[in-house]
Amino acid sequence: MMKKLLRTLFVVAFLGIMMSMTGFAQNNTEAEVIAKVNDIRVANGLNALRYDASLEASAAVRANELNARFSHTRPDGSDWYTVNPDLMYGENLADGYNTADAVVNAWMASPEHKANILKPDFTTVAVSTAVKNGKTYWAQEFGMD
Predict the structure, then answer these.
(1) How far is it, in rounded angstroms, from Cα 109 to Cα 139?
(2) 79 near 71, Cβ under 8 Å?
């Protein structure tokens, strides 16, 4: 009985560590951001954006760069879209927000960020977060077909 309990605790702990290392724990929050953005777009007569896994890779790069340089200029001095210029056509960044509601509300309160969210030309989206020193960095990348 004790052996079974210890094995169960080990499996639960192992899965928790693996999920946090792979970013799986953040996927729900990122998906929430996309859902909230799509609700806003539809309410404004626009098409919902499609999630793009390739764009997600670019968003992950940008989210991880933000601790070094919080800017639309990358830490190496190049422009934000150089992560993948074939996919990236718009970018929203944020730091310090801990929920999907908070970050989407902040973007909608900013004219430039709101313009990206409501740009009719955008058709795809991905969101990634990175947590560094207890602070959450957000990168929302927009694409076009």
Answers:
(1) 17
(2) no
Give the 3-state secondary structure of the chain: CHHHHHHHHHHHHHHHHHHHHHCHHHHHHHHHHHHHHHHHHHHCCCCCCEECHHHHHHHHHHHHHCCCCCCCECCCCCEHHHHCCCCCCEEEEEECCCCHHHHHHHHHHCHHHHHHHCCCCCCEEEEEEEEECCEEEEEEEEECC
Specify whether the CB–CB gap between 128 and 56 falls below 8 A: yes
Report the distance separating Cα 63 and Cα 145, nearest Å. Answer: 23
Q: How many CA atoms lie within 13 A of 74 on its CB side?
A: 15
Residue that is written with structure tokens 């190049």 in the block: 78
Q: pLDDT tens digit string along 53-68?
A: 999 999 999 999 999 9
Quick: pLDDT tens for 111-130. 999 999 999 999 999 999 99
Residues counted in the chain: 145
Contact between 92 and 140 under an 8 Å Cβ cutoff? The reply is yes
